[in-house]
Amino acid sequence: MGAPVIGKNRREKVCLVCEQEKEKGIFLFGHFLCIDCNQAIVQTNTDDPNYAFYVQKLRKMVASKIYS
Ligand SMILES: [Zn+2]
């Protein structure tokens, strides 16, 4: 499997969390995380319902790194 390579001249910067193409962000475990989601994760408390959502996304990211 593996992610399909789309586009020839530029690296796809589609955020793993919001699944939108963004200009600014960071690459984490080979996946793109936009600056908005990165900040949201940092600012989310562990008891916030959204935190579980982000953690799940990040786990997916880490898992794909392990299996790639
Ligand atoms: Zn995002």
UniProtKB/TrEMBL annotation:
Short name of one Pfam family: Gin
Organism, scientific name: Geobacillus stearothermophilus
InterPro entries attached to this UniProt entry: Sigma-G_inhibitor_Gin
Protein name: CsfB protein
